[in-house]
Write a structure and sequence with these properties.
single chain, 251 residues, Rossmann fold, two-stranded antiparallel ribbon, 9 strands, 31% helix
Length: 251
């Protein structure tokens, strides 16, 4: 997709969990520069590049970044720089009145699943399960074609948004502390259809390990009639684990 955005949109950048931008500033800057080249404007949260222990800032400070960017009328979408393990810490400090009044959504995955589901449920708005800045967007020398195209397509004003299976995965990248090397290895994707057919419904879900942190809380969505999207941090398919997860969610 070569089409540029007809109208620039501002992305609000936040680091709700791991302090990766502070640890790898060159990678962070590469991602920001690519977004700017694609026609986006960037507004950084106050604590995007900070580091306080295992997270970017205190839970209150991380929540303040999200609250202020939701309230900022110039911001069209909020993007997480990366996931981690601590997004659930900030839930008590999010201003749901501000978030509900300023429906702009958020994009991320992995640990950000916690925030996406909470914002969807409490903020009454659509959120986007997609790239974070430090992973796909900041890849060297530029984002993978599929990630780039789908991100741009999400900003199109067309009514439909198609998702098709990828034929391959990229091989593992190098340590971010080392000089960047382009990932060229393509690993075929093993796909299996258990029961074919068509389904219709709201898409819900996220990273299973992260979702466990909000199960049974006020941030948990109603899966009745929904299409479930599921990600796991495991590199290999564990049938017993997946079967247990699916059974629990169904019940």
């Amino acid at each position: 997709m070569e089409k540029k955005l007809e109208q620039r949109k501002t992305i609000g950048m936040v680091t709700p969990s791991a302090p990766a931008p502070a640890l790898f500033p060159e990678r962070y800057n590469r991602g920001i520069e690519w977004l700017i080249r694609e026609g986006f404007l960037i507004k950084e949260g106050q604590y995007v590049l900070s580091k306080k222990g295992l997270s970017s800032a205190s839970a209150i400070e991380r929540a303040q970044d999200i609250n202020s960017l939701f309230e900022d009328e110039s911001v069209s979408l909020i993007m997480a720089t990366i996931g981690g393990d601590f997004a659930s810490e900030i839930l008590p400090y999010l201003d749901w009145d501000k978030i509900k009044k300023n429906r702009k959504g958020m994009i991320g995955y992995s640990d950000i699943s916690v925030l996406l589901n909470a914002i969807g449920v409490k903020g009454h708005q659509v959120v986007y399960y997609g790239p974070t800045l430090m992973t796909e967007i900041a890849e060297y020398p530029e984002p993978p074609v599929l990630s780039r195209n789908k991100l741009i397509e999400a900003f199109d004003d067309s009514e439909s948004y198609g998702i098709t299976p990828s034929e391959y995965l990229l091989g593992k990248g190098t340590d971010w502390a080392l000089p960047p090397i382009q990932r060229t290895e393509q690993i075929p994707v093993i796909q299996k259809t258990i029961r074919s057919g068509c389904a219709e419904g709201v898409v819900l879900g996220g990273c299973l390990e992260a979702l466990e942190r909000i199960r049974g809380t006020e941030y948990w969505p109603d899966y009745t009639g929904a299409i479930m999207l599921a990600e796991t941090v495991e590199e290999k398919f564990d049938e017993k684990k997946w079967r247990a997860f699916i059974t629990d969610y169904r019940n």
